[in-house]
Amino acid sequence: MIEGFHEGGCGCGHVRYRVEGEPIFVNNCHCRQCQQQTGGTSVVNAFYEGERFVLVQGAFREHIVTAGSGGPHTICRCSACGTAVLSFYPRMGRLGAGLRVGTLDDASWVTPDAVIFTGEAMPWVAFPAGIPAFETTYNALDLLPPERVARLKALVERRKAGEG
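The chain above was modelled as a monomer; its predicted structure follows.
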C-alpha cells in the first residue's frame, strides 16, 4: 500500500494539488474518446475518492463532454494553461476523481491495473506484458484486491444514497 500524500500540478505551475494514498484503481484507456480528449494514444487515470484530492493552489476551468455512457464527463483543466488534471465521470459524479497520472510530480510508483479499450487502440501501440488488457472494459470486482474493492463498493453505496 502506498502511504502518505503525493503531489502534482499542471504544465505551467498555476495548479498544484495533493492526493492521499493509493488509488482505488488505475486504468490505461485507449478508447477513441480518450484519444480525442488528450490528443494522444491513451490516458492513464488513477481513480480516488473525491475527498482524497485537495487543490492546494490555482483554479480549474471545467469542460463537460459526453462520456461513453452518454452522461456528463467533467474534465478539470488548469485555468491558466489548460492542462487536464482530473475528471469526474457520470457513474460516481464528484465522489470519484480520475486523476491524470502524468500530472503527478513522481508517477514512478503508479502501474495500471488494466489496459482497456484495446480494440480502439491505434494499430501500432504495444501493450505492456504483465498488465491485464481488455478489448473494452472489465469488472473491477474481479481484478482488484479486497481492500480496494471495499473502497469502490463504498463509493457506489454513497452514490446510491444520493451523494455526489
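The beta strands are 5-9, 16-20, 25-29, 43-49, 53-57, 60-66, 72-78, 84-88, 96-100, 114-116.
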